[in-house]
## 1
Amino acid sequence: MQITSFKQYEEDYKKSVENPEQFWGEVAQNFQWRKPWFKVLSWNFNEPNIKWFEGAKLNITENCLDRHLATNGDKPAIVWEPNNPEEESVTYTYKMLHERVCRFANVLKRNGAKKGDRICIYMPMVPELAIAVLACARIGAVHSVIFGGFSAKSIADRINDSQCKVVITADGSYRGNKQIPLKDVIDDALIGCPTVEKCIVLTHIRTPVSMLKGRDVWWEDEVKHVNDICEAEEMDAEDMLFILYTSGSTGKPKGVVHTCGGYMVYAGYTFSNVFNYQPGEVYFCTADIGWITGHSYIVYGPLSQGATSVLFEGIPTYPTPSRFWDIVEKHKVNTLYTAPTAIRSLMSYGEDPLNGKDLSSIRVLGSVGEPINEEAWHWFDEKIGHGKAPIVDTWWQTETGGIMISPIATVTPTKPSFATLPLPGIQPILVDENGNEIEGNGVMGNLCIKFPWPGMLRTTYGDHERCKQTYFSTYENLYFTGDGCLRDEDGYYRITGRVDDVLNVSGHRIGTAEVENAINMHAGVVESAVVGYPHDVKGQGIYAFVIYPEMHGEAELSKKDILQTVTRVIGAIAKPDKILFVSGLPKTRSGKIMRRILRKIAEGDTTNLGDTSTLLDPGVVEEIIAAAKKL
Ligand code: WTA
């Protein structure tokens, strides 16, 4: 299954396009199935209706755990590095992880969870988070992990959307020198969540928490009441594995649904290939399990391949900006997979944090989540990889389940700021506004995928029509990514960023409409418009234009009030970086906000605003420009 030469990449790619069923059928042989499929693929993009490995039965945890026990049971599966470097790191071998997962799976059963139930997980980056995820998969329950930075309201919306029966959380989490009271947030959320029957609470920071009789139970107590034998539930390849909520250009976040068989094959195949993972190596992905990168490339991908995956609780700058390099040195990390925003942030501290750090174990570097600028690419290459470690710039999305366009480490070439070539099985095309294919090289367009791959989303939870509208209706018979893309003279792909109203702030996907809704919930705010602007560290910053005629007190205080409201409604990750109070917004006669103009103003480029004659009140633009200059 592992590609070892460029020639093989070309051959595999060709085969995957000419005979996709044979290609993926062969890849899938590298996994363990209880029962084989009768059909590799049936699909249409109109409904959409996509089925991979139809009829096959499996449990993903047997692939991630059981099958490694005989030969690799004592090999480290997860190496946990705590927030505080003075604390001991913890290693879970495959045998230990298997035991913990089975035990916790029994805890879930004991608390009424069964196959098909939805379970919300809101936890710090501790091994128990991975254990909770895998325990859900073990019993066939559907996990919905929510990133620790989301507010009670966001959690409640997500829990209610998928009607979760159980919540798994912890008393709190550490983030650098801060403590975050997770159970408190969950308590606020659960006031409005009638479907939740049980809440399992892990003790982590041992902060006081309220425990409601009948609903709340302690993780540590529960595991004492069960044994560690738990036969894996037999799942259909197309049974739901998890839901992960993600932002789009409109309205509330949607629950992207991934299923068992295809997702497993795709996460495992891409992990093994893109990082060129070799047995015995230590792999460190710095993402949070609350995002898709953590699902696919901390948990499922690496474990399905018997890899050693480092799980880090903290942040890159705590206690010092050397932390990543300390971890690399301490655990002899061979592959470091991180985000451009982290690289840029660490770059800003200069070379001191690197002094004396032994990074010689590094063999492969990876980047994910947003376009990586050339400066960051070269710094990563020279300072961290010492020019010897290929950088895989991996383009993909929550919806794609796994990496789609990326170099294959040591096999295909890299090129600064380019995701380069599609992986086998992936058929990207560029289209113009009208959906016509743009052929040839040296062209730009909207990035679509024209053929299914095993890791793709199947639906959006509870609202299939939304899935169809969002991804399959913009262009007929194509999956639309929402990204703009360049294909250069060599046929290499470079993702240029979102073409819809989705922002990418520090690699976090945030819909402008969501932030606007949150700002508009602030008493007294009449209207707002949110756009992105280039930000040195975050990639994109959030710029909000707000109409707030009868402001409560001073402008600076009012801004803080608005930030507080956004924090309550979505979470701190969606706080605008800049707020500009305005008396009006540039609108067309039909009432549409002309974001193009606001984007230019936010970028500080007001030389060429284009045609403003269609505006209802062109004067408002001058006023906004003048105000923006003073901000
Ligand atoms: C962006 C993260 C450029 C892109 C895995 C995509 C990237 C969105 C890259 C998905 C990359 C991700 N180069 N842009 N290597 N990787 N993106 O769902 O805009 O959190 O649509 O998945 O991030 O974000 P998501």
## 2
Amino acid sequence: MTTPKKLFIKTYGCQMNVYDSERMAEALGGKGYVPTDRPEEADMILLNTCHIREKAAEKVYSELGRFKGLKAERPDLKIGVAGCVAQAEGEEIMRRQPLVDLVVGPQSYHRLPELEERARTGEKALDTDFPEEDKFDVLKDRPKAQRGPTAFLTVQEGCDKFCAFCVVPYTRGAEVSRPVDRVLAEARDLVDRGVREITLLGQNVNAYHGVGPDGGDWSLARLIWALNDVDGLERIRFTTSHPNDMTDDLIEAHGQCEKLMPYLHLPVQSGSDRILKRMNRSHTAESYLRLVERIRAARPDILMSGDFIVGFPEETEEDFQATLDLIEEVKYGYAYSFKYSPRPGTPAAERAQVPADVADERLQRLQALITRQQREAQEAMVGREVGVLFERPGRKPGQMVGKSDHLHAVHVEAEGIRPGDLARVRIVASGANSLAGEIIG
Ligand code: 5AD
Ligand code: SF4
């Protein structure tokens, strides 16, 4: 028997990259590769990169440089760059870094087996096409292993919104939705392999409009209702959403669909209408606030999460204050905040930039406010009963850790709880980044 080849993948960036890395491992699984978490024993190293913020390419170059010794020891080692940096700068990476044997963009990784073969013959293999064929579909017959209780499932990719700061429409391409029957088949397969919670992914997941089994155009809400009927699946989440695509049926689903969890990541980016307009967001602070009101009317305990960019070109102190005001009004349970970073090729990169020290100082103020809100949201859970899906043992003996319906990390000390168990838990205390609970009954 030949010993299997080993594959080390390092994943940067968003959850969609995590999903893609799993698919890449499956694609190479068909060529006899098994995953390893040790680069020094790998026959192939893949960096699945992210291009969304600053220094993305530099990070890739410095990471690649670290493999120089490994490659000198084992010339058979193949090194590849995948993901959005590969898409944006693949050819240049190959020119500048001779260690790289293979470059594959986010739309063509189903062709990895063929690229791997070319790389094995000593060729420099590059594929950054946007192919016609469905990369997800091509991968469907790969060998499959038992899974943990939670999984991602990409249902939509790309974006047509062209926010002035964002590279996604260029690296991931135009908005594409997967057909409903493919998504449902993949969901059932995940459930058969032990998954109980699925997070539907898309750069603009709520713009989903897949072809239904009836030939009609299905919305995300309709897809969620169909998933609600999948036996053995207990929880459904989705991310990331755009405010303009929060349709009435999706808001209603948050109130009525039993398996849809009370957590919504709905980025607003800024609270200043002037900046929102310059960002090409096509919503206002007020329309966002009214939307959040409607969502909370449908599901009062929903936990809101968001993304914020500070120091967008021309942002004044007054604009920034409007963002803080919006945050005060919404009261987020969780948020991600970023200092604006100019991305080559995007419209905002050409504009007058806010000085770095000003942006840093604003980011600190915003993060202090968000941290306070996060703590308050956690403290408000104390005394309440929630569902918890347990995922793994905690740090202390006898401890199990899982996620609540509202996506808080919860730990309990209890006998007989196993990963994949879903239990009712009373929250008894709130810590820095997690809640403590007790199993009910
Ligand atoms: N600079 C800073 N943050 C950005 N994001 C996207 N592009 C940029 C950029 N150029 C943030 C947005 C988005 C999240 C995924 O990343 O907040 O919602
Ligand atoms: Fe980027 Fe805007 Fe599209 Fe989100 S909606 S992926 S921020 S362009």
